């Protein structure tokens, strides 16, 4: 079933007031693996270094993401399949966390990105003082590091992490790998002020021939995330992850066959047809994008 872009984002907002189950699992008896197979000893503060999918239908999303992006999965972490490791080309890139379904026709499935910060406790206190919500207080998780889950004052949920052995080494994104992370928010200025204070971001509006005027959060001169204003007051702000694909139209053609939904299809009027918003069978939303944006003109 095809639904509108607005309906998809509003639906995503319904699962916002939840504690991220992966941290609850990790703080108990379950074994959550580190972010990298080998220690790196380096940190990319201000980067999103991990993504966890909260879902009430693990088998369905395994088939969906495996078929769509070629992701592979290891499910030996945790009892009853509570945590599944996602790998891409043999590299860990995220986790899938089982959450009990809600009553009625409401999904709680969503992607939650993890932001690398220097001091998790300080970042959490800044969010708290700014009027945000702390869903999971800072806690040390064996092998993973110090974690917390928060919602900013406008409702966008993310995790903070300071890894035990270092962040993943930065590399050019592969096809089927994470490309970008973007904040959709009602008050861009307030969001920029908050996140700037958290990780020393600088905010820049770039004039791109395909993207148009686009807000970018930079740290040490490097682009780390995008920011755009939500046009609908009844939609809760979200952090949306991007996956790099070679052909968004070809990917979208497989989405419904694999049990997902197309929330917005590629269109020449939106970034030259380079993007699409999709949802997995349980409702978790993400963006797929061709990169460079327009390979016909060599745009970056």
Strand order of the largest sheet: 2-3-4-1-5-8-7-6
Radius of gyration: 18 Å
The percentage helix is 10-25%
Compute the separation of the termini in Å. Answer: 33 Å
Question: Which segments are poorly predicted (pLDDT under 50) over 5 or more consecutive residues?
Answer: 1-5, 11-20, 295-300
Strand percent estimate:
35-45%
| Major sheet | 8 strands, mixed
The overall average pLDDT, rounded, is 84
Backbone shape: globular
Total strands: the figure is 16
Number of helices: 6
From the helix content, strand content and strand pairing, which structural class follows? alpha+beta
H-E string: HHEHEEEEHEEEEHEEEEHEEE
Task: Summarize the structure in words.
Residues 1-5, 11-20 and 295-300 have low confidence and may be disordered. The chain is built from 6 helices and 16 strands. An 8-stranded mixed β-sheet has the order 2-3-4-1-5-8-7-6, sandwiched between helices. By secondary structure, the protein is an alpha+beta fold. The two termini are 33 Å apart. Helix 4 runs antiparallel to helix 5.
Properties at a glance:
about 300 residues; alpha+beta; eight-stranded mixed β-sheet; 16 strands; about 20% helix; globular; disordered N terminus; disordered C terminus
List the helices and strands and how they pair.
Layout (H helix, E strand, L loop, with lengths): L4 H9 L7 H7 L20 E8 L2 H12 L2 E6 L5 E6 L2 E8 L11 E7 L3 H10 L3 E9 L3 E7 L5 E7 L14 E8 L2 H12 L2 E7 L3 E8 L2 E8 L8 E8 L2 H8 L5 E4 L10 E5 L5 E6 L10
Parallel strand pairs: 1-4, 5-8, 9-12, 13-16
Antiparallel strand pairs: 1-5, 2-3, 3-4, 6-7, 7-8, 9-13, 10-11, 11-12, 14-15, 15-16
Helix pairs in contact: 4-5
């Amino acid at each position: 079933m095809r639904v509108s872009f607005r309906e998809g984002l509003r639906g995503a907002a319904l699962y916002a007031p939840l504690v991220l189950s992966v941290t609850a699992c990790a703080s108990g008896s379950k074994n959550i693996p580190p972010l990298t197979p080998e220690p790196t000893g380096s940190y990319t503060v201000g980067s999103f270094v991990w993504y966890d999918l909260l879902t009430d239908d693990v088998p369905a999303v395994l088939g969906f993401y495996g078929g769509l992006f070629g992701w592979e999965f290891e499910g030996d972490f945790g009892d009853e399949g509570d945590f599944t490791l996602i790998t891409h080309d043999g590299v860990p890139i995220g986790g899938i966390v089982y959450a009990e379904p809600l009553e009625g026709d409401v999904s709680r499935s969503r992607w939650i990105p993890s932001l690398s910060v220097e001091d998790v406790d300080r970042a959490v206190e800044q969010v708290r003082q700014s009027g945000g919500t702390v869903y999971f207080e800072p806690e040390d998780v064996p092998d993973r590091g110090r974690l917390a889950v928060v919602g900013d004052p406008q409702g966008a949920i993310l995790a903070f992490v300071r890894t035990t052995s270092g962040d993943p080494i930065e590399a050019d994104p592969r096809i089927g790998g994470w490309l970008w992370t973007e904040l959709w928010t009602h008050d861009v200025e307030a969001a920029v002020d908050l996140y700037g204070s958290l990780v020393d971001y600088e905010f820049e509006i770039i004039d791109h021939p395909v993207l148009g005027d686009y807000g970018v959060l930079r740290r040490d001169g490097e682009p780390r995330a995008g920011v755009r204003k939500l046009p609908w007051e009844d939609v809760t702000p979200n952090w949306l992850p991007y996956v790099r694909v070679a052909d968004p139209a070809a990917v979208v053609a497989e989405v419904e066959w694999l049990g997902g939904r197309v929330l917005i299809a590629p269109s020449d009027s939106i970034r030259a047809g380079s993007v699409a918003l999709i949802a997995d069978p349980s409702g978790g939303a993400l963006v797929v994008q061709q990169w460079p944006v327009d390979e016909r003109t060599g745009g970056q």
